[in-house]
Specification:
Elements: E1 9-14, H1 21-35, E2 38-42, H2 49-52, E3 57-62, E4 65-79, E5 85-91, E6 96-102, E7 109-113, H3 135-143
Parallel strand pairs: 1-3
Antiparallel strand pairs: 1-7, 2-5, 3-4, 4-5, 4-6
C-alpha cells in the first residue's frame, strides 16, 4: 500500500463534561442513533485539513487525561442555529483507547503530530489483569509508572 505524501496530523480536544470514556460512548451512541453520523461542530476550521484527513484522529482529553481517539473521516462546512459559519468534524464511531497521558485544560483544540501521539493500548504490552481494573485506577497506576 502506497503512503500518502501528506503527513498525518491529529487534533486534541477536551471532552467537556465527560467523567470517563463510558460517558463519551453513551453520548455518541445517542447522537449516532438520532443523527445517523457522528460529528463535532466547532467555530474554527482547521487550516491543516489535508494533514488531518491523511489518517488523522481526534484525541479526547477526559478528566485531565488524553486517553481515547477517533478517526477523522471528513471536514464539512455547516452553519450554526444563528447562521454563523461553522465546521463539522465527521468522526468514525469507533473509540480507540490510547496510552493515557495527563494534559492540562485548554480552550479550543490543539494540533498533535503523529510522532507525539500516544500509542493505541491494543498495540502496547499490558500487565496481566490490567483490562479488569476500573478505568480511573488503571489511569492512576499508569501515571505513577506502575503499569
Amino acid at each position: 500500500m502506497a503512503r500518502s505524501a501528506t503527513p498525518t496530523l491529529h487534533l486534541v480536544k477536551l471532552a467537556v463534561g465527560a467523567r470517563d470514556v463510558a460517558d463519551i460512548r453513551e453520548w455518541q451512541a445517542r447522537r449516532l442513533a438520532r443523527e445517523g453520523s457522528l460529528g463535532h461542530v466547532t467555530r474554527s476550521r482547521p487550516t491543516r485539513a489535508a494533514e488531518l484527513l491523511a489518517g488523522g484522529s481526534i484525541y479526547w482529553v477526559v478528566a485531565g487525561s488524553l486517553c481515547v481517539r477517533q478517526r477523522l473521516l471528513a471536514i464539512e462546512s455547516t452553519t450554526g442555529q444563528d447562521g454563523t459559519a461553522m465546521t463539522r468534524l465527521v468522526l468514525d464511531p469507533k473509540l480507540v483507547a490510547v496510552m493515557p497521558r495527563g494534559m492540562k485544560p485548554f480552550q479550543g483544540w490543539r494540533y498533535l503530530s503523529a510522532e507525539a501521539a500516544p500509542p493505541d493500548v491494543a498495540k502496547t504490552r499490558r500487565a496481566k489483569g490490567e483490562d479488569r481494573l476500573p478505568e480511573a485506577m488503571a489511569r492512576s497506576l499508569r501515571e505513577l509508572g506502575l503499569l
